[in-house]
Task: inverse folding
């Protein structure tokens, strides 16, 4: 197994540890530990793709597991932040915070569906700049939300800053989704190419009885 794939697996392994520490309020400095795990996992997400492309180590395993690990990391982190204090780190309304998380989850499902259809048609869809901005902003927003209570105790404006950054990430999530769908709409609804049978196939499938033109008897 090559290095990029090992980094991807490491990111997957780190997710349960992140969940444990962010939910373990009884452990001193649990949020800082969770932040360190999430930041390290995000770093592996950035490194594995770059290493794979630079060293020509791209594999089918990496193509499948890398985006899956990325989605699991982000969605898990957002769900944990909802559980910890009812989404108060995202906004003051729990229902609104839940809707925001559902938007992120829905976007990932839609993008995965498009990629699956594109792959079946032999089309490779490259990541857009909007998607890259969304990913970077979301990662930073999650990092801040993990320790926003500790930061707010030092400087109260950090709570408002964190919320603003989170909603910027949600806005970019919607924009990147619309951009992705508009640019790749033809991939989802592309008509299947009709394969015309060859003359030999037509002869083999032609069951019309044939008769001898001279005797009128059926040919064997």
Result:
């Amino acid at each position: 197994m090559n290095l990029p794939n090992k980094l991807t697996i490491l990111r997957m392994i780190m997710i349960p540890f992140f969940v444990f520490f962010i939910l373990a309020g009884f452990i001193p400095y649990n949020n800082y530990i969770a932040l360190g795990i999430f930041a390290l996992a995000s770093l592996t997400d950035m490194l594995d793709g770059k290493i794979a492309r630079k060293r020509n180590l791209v594999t089918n395993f990496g193509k499948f597991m890398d985006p899956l690990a990325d989605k699991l990391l982000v969605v898990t982190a957002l769900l944990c932040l909802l559980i910890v204090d009812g989404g108060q780190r995202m906004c003051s309304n729990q229902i609104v915070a839940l809707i925001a998380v559902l938007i992120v989850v829905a976007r990932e499902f839609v993008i995965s569906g498009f990629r699956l259809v594109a792959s079946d048609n032999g089309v490779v869809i490259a990541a857009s700049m909007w998607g890259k901005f969304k990913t970077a902003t979301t990662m930073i927003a999650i990092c801040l939300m993990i320790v926003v209570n500790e930061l707010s105790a030092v400087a109260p404006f950090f709570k408002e800053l964190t919320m603003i950054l989170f909603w910027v990430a949600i806005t970019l999530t919607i924009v990147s989704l619309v951009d992705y769908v508009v640019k790749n709409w033809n991939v989802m609804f592309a008509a299947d190419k009709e394969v015309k049978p060859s003359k030999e196939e037509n002869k083999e499938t032609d069951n019309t009885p044939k008769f001898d033109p001279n005797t009128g008897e059926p040919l064997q």
Remarks:
- The chain has one domain: 3-193.
- The chain has a mean pLDDT of 84.
- The longest helix spans residues 94-120.
- Residues 3-193 form a domain with the Four Helix Bundle (Hemerythrin (Met), subunit A) fold (CATH 1.20.120.1760).
